[in-house]
């Protein structure tokens, strides 16, 4: 019967069914899109319109690009340095920012602080809550010292009511918490659905551009960590920020995955405390432990979070095992890379690990995904096996290959400069440093940063430089 209906519509000249996310078309309705594999996004498209378009009125006449004023697009500082760092200097009037994160990570707390700072700077701000009542938000504002005269609060879930609030308050900064709770009165579907989220976001984008209001939208994420709603949502907004952190730690990070007004690889650091959220301008101390005396099985490396170098400590514990398959446990590191480094240590450095249990973890719950930590993992494991602690002022930077070679890494100068700033005196780096004018050789780096540089070509040379073998 569905097939007959599809044939009838085709004969009538109507368009087929179309996916609302990617535009994929089908001759009949299906529950899952055949292109983007999204569920429930295929609906019957409207009747085809004529391809001929007549000229219409223009909003403003075109002019030479050099004569267009850029004053209205200048960023305005939020008063929170770490967020301004990620945004590229601040919030641009008329921009739409999407902040996404897991439940309970602190999105509402962060944006309430941003709204309060904006109000303190003399910009009228409207905070619209669709998930909590006004009284609940007021309690949080009292706890975080966000009670400011120019900060207005409303609890609405209807988009037309939100527009009415904007007409009355006339804010320069608008926060919507969250976009999945808003409902467009002229669109079918439940709030949070694909159609509703798309239409609500589109209406808020038009509102921001027409009235030159900076708008921040709170977005939910799925169990896979992706932003809930259609993929088109990320294309509609100007800036996409990801807010994440470990539930067992107060440390939080804001990452820019899309930014039309600044860099898209910056990271801002925050700490959740009892009185709200505070920015952390120098988070290195959170990932490096202090020991009264040298301890075997530890090594410090320098990772890059966006453009920011951060020191991270790797700890390893190796001990005998009576089990036929010794345990390999990792925390904060990729288990596959740690297993590869252990295999290289056994075959290229002569360390016997087949009957040993190995535990490797990072300090402070930080996650290291780049291969720059390979050398630090190798040195920490070897230090634990031999029970020889390394020099407390030593850092190790480098990727380890299957042949035992130590490979180059990007941003070496920034990493060394950060280590020198924090008082480290020795560094093991790859010997394979590019011989170009903009890159420094080990001796040049030693003179520039005041570090004693050890250039290691392979894993054995790195062990000797660390004083382990």
Automatic annotation (TrEMBL):
A motif (RadA KNRFG motif) lies at residues 258-262. This is DNA repair protein RadA. ATP binds at residues 101-108. Plays a role in repairing double-strand DNA breaks, probably involving stabilizing or processing branched DNA or blocked replication forks. DNA-dependent ATPase involved in processing of recombination intermediates, plays a role in repairing DNA breaks. Stimulates the branch migration of RecA-mediated strand transfer reactions, allowing the 3' invading strand to extend heteroduplex DNA faster. Binds ssDNA in the presence of ADP but not other nucleotides, has ATPase activity that is stimulated by ssDNA and various branched DNA structures, but inhibited by SSB. Does not have RecA's homology-searching function. HAMAP family: RadA_bact (MF_01498). The middle region has homology to RecA with ATPase motifs including the RadA KNRFG motif, while the C-terminus is homologous to Lon protease. The lineage of its organism: Bacteria, Bacillati, Actinomycetota, Actinomycetes, Propionibacteriales. Keywords: ATP-binding, DNA damage, DNA repair, DNA-binding, Hydrolase, Metal-binding, Nucleotide-binding, Stress response, Zinc, Zinc-finger. GO terms for biological process: proteolysis; recombinational repair. Residues 72-221 form the RecA family profile domain. The gene is radA. CDD domains: RadA_SMS_N (cd01121). Belongs to the RecA family. RadA subfamily. Residues 357-469 are annotated as: Lon-protease-like. SMART domains: AAA.
